[in-house]
TrEMBL record:
Signal peptide: 1-22
Cross-referenced Pfam families: EthD
Protein name: EthD domain-containing protein
Domain EthD positions: 86-181
InterPro entries, A to Z: Dimeric_a/b-barrel, EthD_dom
UniProt GO MF annotations: oxidoreductase activity
UniProt entry keywords in alphabetical sequence: Signal
Similarity comment: family membership: Belongs to the tpcK family.
């Protein structure tokens, strides 16, 4: 799939994307956050499995009755693009090029600072894959990607405006084919973060999940 084709699908809505996301409310342990006011249809088995248990972490328990979806939904939409390196370039060059030339072209794009709240690159190297070998032996499968571009935006309208600019930027388009295996396709997901554990990203309007040091966390013998 050509990059322009992928981006066209993104912007025309041919690929399903989450619409603008509202900022979540502050929450406490007695009341889950319910942001998506959509009825949930449950089978008897599903309802029994969800509700016939005692939740030590009350903020993770479903509401009762099941009339809403409850998550610690963070305020910004998140889009990830997963891709492989060109087979004719070295792994070292792939990661170096992406984290320097392409990173600068991305951040230097017109109105990047208006439409994008956070940009992160996830790099996976051969040594990283080796560390996962024990998990592969237990049945997990390696993901066939070398990198994931992760972008946060206030809403999908902002992300689409950013992508429109990228489409029109010839240097950026030419740069992508220098290190990405475009023929293998670029795979995209869009949605939101349900922050279960950890602190919300500063400056992005989200709510903390279960925080480190919470007294309900369980430790092995000798743990603090």
């Amino acid at each position: 799939m050509r990059l322009s084709t992928l981006t066209s699908l993104l912007l025309t809505g041919a690929l399903p994307l989450t619409s603008a996301l509202a900022a979540p409310k502050n929450h406490d342990y007695s009341s889950p956050i319910c942001n998506l006011n959509k009825p949930i249809s449950l089978t008897p088995d599903q309802e029994t499995y969800l509700y016939n248990r005692t939740y030590a972490f009350k903020e993770l328990a479903p509401p009762n009755p099941a009339s809403e979806q409850c998550f610690n939904k963070q305020a910004h939409v998140r889009v990830i693009i997963l891709f492989k390196r060109r087979p004719d370039i070295s792994e070292d060059y792939f990661h170096l090029h992406w984290s320097t030339v392409h990173a600068e072209l991305t951040v230097a794009a017109r109105d990047f600072g208006i439409h994008i709240s956070r940009y992160n690159q996830f790099h996976q190297t051969a040594p990283d894959k080796t560390l996962l070998a024990p998990l592969f032996a237990q049945g997990l499968q390696p993901a066939p990607y070398d990198g994931i571009a992760e972008l946060y935006a206030p809403d999908m309208d902002d992300f689409q405006k950013f992508m429109n600019g990228v489409l029109r930027d010839e240097p950026t388009q030419k740069d992508i084919v220098r290190f990405v295996d475009v023929a293998a396709g670029l795979h995209v997901m869009a949605g939101y973060d349900d922050l279960v554990y950890g602190l919300a990203a500063p400056g992005m309007g989200g709510s903390d999940g279960i925080v480190p040091g919470d007294e309900r966390l369980v430790y092995s013998d000798g743990g603090d």
